[in-house]
């Protein structure tokens, strides 16, 4: 960032843009700031369908229930929820992922983020 004659490219990512040091945001420090907003309901449905396409999901699982929940989740959160649901089924020696597995994945990831952000609140 300060000239030693090196060509250096840095990619930074954060979930908490509001906590960035203002010195990083001064002109000349970063070339571009790309923001990815949280997905809307339609996008959440597409993300969830894509991630669960190769999962063996029980017919009782209502993915619309998870899509319509009011909590704001990113695509990474959705992927983590699905991965945790699959791991819950594996831990129970099941070949089918049940609704309760998705519920545990949801609680493990979405509720966890809410608690983590409370720590940073002023």
UniProtKB/TrEMBL annotation:
Residues 61-104 form the AAA ATPase AAA+ lid domain. One of its GO terms (molecular function) is ATP binding. The keyword ATP-binding applies. Keywords: ATP-binding, Nucleotide-binding. Residues 9-38 form the ATPase AAA-type core domain. Gene3D superfamilies: 1.10.8.60, P-loop containing nucleotide triphosphate hydrolases. It holds the Pfam family AAA_lid_3. It comes from the Eukaryota. Transmembrane segments: none annotated. This is CBN-RPT-3 protein, related. It comes from Eimeria tenella (Coccidian parasite).
């Amino acid at each position: 960032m300060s000239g030693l004659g090196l060509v250096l490219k840095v990619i930074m990512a954060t979930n908490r843009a509001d906590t960035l040091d203002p010195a990083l945001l001064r002109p000349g420090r970063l070339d571009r700031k790309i923001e990815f907003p949280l997905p809307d309901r339609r996008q959440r449905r597409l993300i969830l369908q894509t991630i669960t396409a190769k999962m063996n999901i029980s017919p009782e699982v209502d993915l619309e229930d998870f899509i319509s929940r009011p909590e704001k989740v990113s695509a990474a959160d959705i992927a983590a929820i699905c991965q945790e649901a699959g791991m819950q089924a594996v831990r129970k020696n099941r070949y089918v992922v049940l609704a309760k597995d998705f519920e545990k994945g949801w609680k493990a990831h979405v509720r966890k983020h809410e608690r983590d952000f409370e720590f940073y609140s002023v």
